[in-house]
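Posting for a labmate who doesn't have an account.
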Amino acid sequence: MPVIPMVPLQPEDPALQSIFAEVRARGIEVPDLYRVMGNSPAMLRAWIDFAWPLRLNARTSRAIRELLILRGAQIGGVDYEWAHHVPMALDAGVPQAKIDALADWPNASVFDAPERAVLRLADEVTRGPGASEACMAELARHFERSDVVELTLTSSFYVCVSRFLTSVKLELEPDYQHLRLNKAAG
């Protein structure tokens, strides 16, 4: 049970009704995360206005960003984040073999050099305090500056996601239980 109760799927607040309608219009069921954040419609609006462009308008491949997000969730041990992003990663073309290899990515042969640079970024940003100069230099060898900004913002944002999920103690929805994170894999 989250420490902040979820708002109803059919809220009375007109601003929240509009946000939920926007989510549904994209073919997405309103996740429990948004129902907790719905207690503050202005903050949910701000969250969506930052998160969705990271997800939908970035130039870097969705697949590489999903690997980054999954690695961060794995390090943080956050089931909710992991379970919601596994299907997104698969839909973006990430092979299951890469998802399975994330826990030991430095020793896995399935990742290419740009993916390794991004996974290093995920490790360093998630563990904190941030990416090292060497990590940023490695990213610059594989990506344009704008891409490095996107990847670093994405990694940093998903640290925020995991901290929020952990703080509010949001449980994984029943439909996602089968995608639970193996806690020993982080």
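Reply:
Got it, the structure tokens are right above this. The longest helix spans residues 145-168.
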